[in-house]
Amino acid sequence: MSKILAKIEKAEHIVLISHINPDADSLGSASAMYTMLLQKHKKVSWFCKSSEIDQKLSFLPWFEKIKSRFPASADLAIAFDCADKKRLGVEIECDLINIDHHITNTNYGDLNFVEPDFISTTELLYDLFKKNGVKINPKMATAIYAGLLDDSGAFLSQEVDGTTFATVVELIEHGADFKLCNKKIAKSVSLAAFRLKSVMYKNMLLEESAKVSVFCLSREDMAMSGAVAEDCEAPLEESLYLPHVEVAVLLREQRDLGIKCSLRSSSTVDVGKIATLFGGGGHFSRAGFEIYEKLSLDEAKNRVLDLIKKEL
């Protein structure tokens, strides 16, 4: 962190990067850093290639500052929660700092601070702030709590322990609006998401003696419901609470004709390992990848299931 802070001190224009299709962790990390840089009176911009960002996260501080155009005058960029450089969505010509918690991170930055032991990148950032005497205000605390809440599955993931809740207590003491975060991230749902959930549950398959739940979504399914990619996450993760289910699989056709696969595991199967075999990445219990071969959803499903069977 001392090297990161030294880079920040020297920089004239710093750009914070949230990855393509950002979640609360990537956005929360950038939001917290945005506040810190303003405290240092730095010129700061916030970049995200995605033009459509989940509006339920618009409560995060400085959300309205996000731009989809990377500023040419930047002399330092900081990427958050992005394991692979291609997910930045832009070629970086200035110095790049990579801050992340994914074990599959490719260390693509000029400076890399990657710590897989942390549940979220916001939790990692909070630890770095504390160790370097950075003052945490309510905006920063709210952004950090939001990322930790989301990446821990509302504190239900296997990685959560007493240290996690000790961190939560500290963030609340710093003024984190935890009630707002809980409402927006854990409970808020759109009409489109409601419609999509009914489609997903209706078409859900149980494979391998009901140990694997499988969801296949076509472009037509997404279009008819009006849902966005993030709306698929809740039903996928909820299926892990069905009796016997150990792995949940979502295969979704994308607009560019590729297939996006999201994987979730209750505890027994390392889905991060499976994702890396397809060029993706993630964690033991949460991972994903994309397929750009000419495969049908059914063909892609069979290929993924073959690998899951070996792990089971």
From TrEMBL:
One of its GO terms (molecular function) is nucleic acid binding. Residues 244-309 form the DHHA1 domain. It comes from Sulfurimonas crateris. Pfam families: DHH, DHHA1. Gene3D superfamilies: 3.10.310.30, inorganic pyrophosphatase (n-terminal core) (3.90.1640.10). Residues 14-147 form the DDH domain. SUPFAM superfamilies: DHH phosphoesterases (SSF64182). InterPro entries: DDH_dom, DHH_sf, DHHA1_dom, Oligoribo/pAp-PDE_c-di-AMP_PDE. This is Bifunctional oligoribonuclease/PAP phosphatase NrnA. It comes from the Bacteria.
